[in-house]
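BUG: 3D viewer hangs when loading the predicted structure for this chain

Environment: internal workstation, default settings.
Expected: structure renders.
Actual: progress bar stalls at 90%.

Input used:
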Amino acid sequence: MKALALTAALTLAACSGPAPETRGDASMTSAGATETTRPEKVVAEPTRDLSGRWIGVEGMVLDVTPAGEPGRFRLAMQWDLDHKGVFDARAVGDTIVFTRDGVREILRPTNGDATGLKYLAGKTDCLTVKTGEGYCRRGSTR
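Structure tokens produced before the viewer hung:
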């Protein structure tokens, strides 16, 4: 009789379907309560087309190409005289997020003045990673 009840319970559990999905990552707090964090919102595409070649200073260059899925990119970049690489990236809002040398970096649409680079000052269509690292489209002047 116990075997029949166990079989019935297992059959019911198997037929009930998958557990509902949850959003975000759940983690335990020190008080034992579950805390949920939401993942970053990934949008289909940035608010404008960021693909193409972006030029920095002293040999710095950034090539942004779509990587198959909407909101995914491949970044080929030379970010100083000694360092270059290719990185997978994703759109988050109007930015592009990528990881370089274990550090999460964010490309933000800016103007040349925001790059902090004298050569790019006055440009209007630029992407900045941080002060001293920025790239602008050719011909993007006021």
